[in-house]
Design goal:
The chain is of the alpha/beta class. Helices cover 38% and strands 24% of the residues. The two termini are 17 Å apart.
């Protein structure tokens, strides 16, 4: 058995999955290098949730207090109509599908906490990326090195996956997402507002400790080729929302000045296997559940824990297979949330919008509405806890 202790491991991607995996691999005695295409760590970002089994992982890393101290502090969520009237309001945890001790924080804050926790046990190389996999790994910088294991943690559009597995593996759910920072012209104080139109949803929220706000757009794919490059994506987004009301025009006006624009299809990674030779995938690169699932961050944390643990107990030869056997039922359970949730997040027709707004208005007046709405999030909680984590 080839043991993980003292093994030389390359992790491609310094996001949540990559940094969490680096922490656990170092904990098990591996010599870890993380390579990241971006020139520097990305702070801030959009808000993400840590639920269920992922909280256990964070606790075992000794980071639970740090995570809780960085919560977004969002207090309420409301659905608004085209005039800005609040059709329904509820507490933020119910609005975001959180229960018990689930935590919401900014992606960049979580990534920074994970990175800082690795200390000097992990070598981070920013501004570089893998270009070829063979007997040695070739990087954009021109350097070549050999490793006992290469792990792709470089997201839905994983270059590592493409090099090792070939093209494919990405399944679109028929929608797009865009996120970027905007001025907080609505004066939101830890509040989230969501506007729903036919095939078009727009929301804006503010979090604790930030003076600006984040705008998010979720919309049905109008057809045609996926836009590439920021200029095409901006035009695509503006055209999709050209006739929407509420604050949408003003939010779109802020796009030109945003330096954190993110745009992609809402998609899932679906692969028959997550390992090939001495290359293994983790997080979105292996099993992206899509932003609609609300479980991408949790899957990344749990996957990193299980992969490192199985490598530590079963070695480099058998560990990847055991990792996949343990994780796949959990992944499939959580991936099923994506297609179901996006149908509720983006409504197809004006009739659906009117019906949904009417039902929300009635529900908003009922006593105990939070208790009734909590039943809607039960599938998320069941999926988030649908794995028993060994102690490695």
């Amino acid at each position: 058995m080839t043991r993980i202790a003292n093994a030389k491991v390359l992790v491609s991607g310094a996001g949540i999955a990559g940094t969490a995996l680096a922490w656990w691999l170092a904990e098990h005695g591996a010599r870890v290098t993380v390579v990241e295409r971006a020139d520097a760590p990305r702070d801030g970002g959009y808000k993400v949730d840590i639920r269920g089994a992922a909280l256990t992982v964070i606790e075992r890393m000794g980071l639970l207090d740090a995570v809780r101290s960085q919560r977004t502090g969002v207090r309420t969520g409301s659905v608004v109509d085209a005039t800005g009237r609040r059709v329904a309001s509820m507490d933020a945890d119910t609005f975001g599908g959180r229960v018990h001790d689930d935590a919401e924080l900014l992606r960049g804050d979580l990534a920074r906490s994970l990175r800082e926790a690795t200390g000097d046990r992990v070598d981070y190389r920013f501004g570089d990326a893998i270009t070829a996999l063979g007997s040695a790994v070739t990087f954009e910088s021109g350097r070549q090195e050999t490793y006992d294991l290469v792990v792709g943690a470089d997201g839905l559009r994983s270059r590592t996956r493409e090099l090792a597995f070939g093209e494919g593996g990405v399944h679109d759910l028929g929608h797009y997402v865009a996120i970027y920072s905007v001025p907080n012209h609505l004066g939101l104080d830890r509040e989230e507002l969501t506007y729903v139109g036919p095939g078009r949803t727009a929301l804006v929220y503010s979090t604790a400790g930030q003076t600006d706000a984040k705008a998010m757009f979720l919309f049905t794919d109008p057809g045609g080729a996926r836009p590439r490059g920021r200029e095409e994506q901006e035009a695509f987004l503006a055209e999709a929302y050209a006739h929407e009301g509420w604050e949408v025009p003003r939010l779109l006006d802020a796009l030109a000045g945003a330096d954190d624009f993110y745009f992609d299809s809402i998609s899932q990674a679906r692969l028959d296997g997550w390992s090939r030779g001495r290359v293994t995938l983790v997080g979105d690169a292996a099993y992206c559940a899509s932003p609609a699932s609300g479980q991408g961050t949790s899957l990344a944390l749990v996957g990193a824990y299980v992969l490192a643990g199985e490598l530590a107990t079963a070695g480099l030869d058998d560990g990847p297979r055991r990792y996949e056997e343990r994780m796949r039922p959990f992944v499939e359970r959580n991936q099923r949330l994506g297609p179901a949730n996006i149908k509720r997040m983006v409504l197809r027709s004006r009739g659906q919008v009117r019906m949904s707004m009417g039902m929300l208005a009635v529900l908003n007046r009922l006593p105990g509405k939070e208790r009734l709405l909590a039943k809607v999030v039960e599938p998320i909680h069941r999926a988030a806890t649908a794995i028993t984590l060994p102690v490695y």
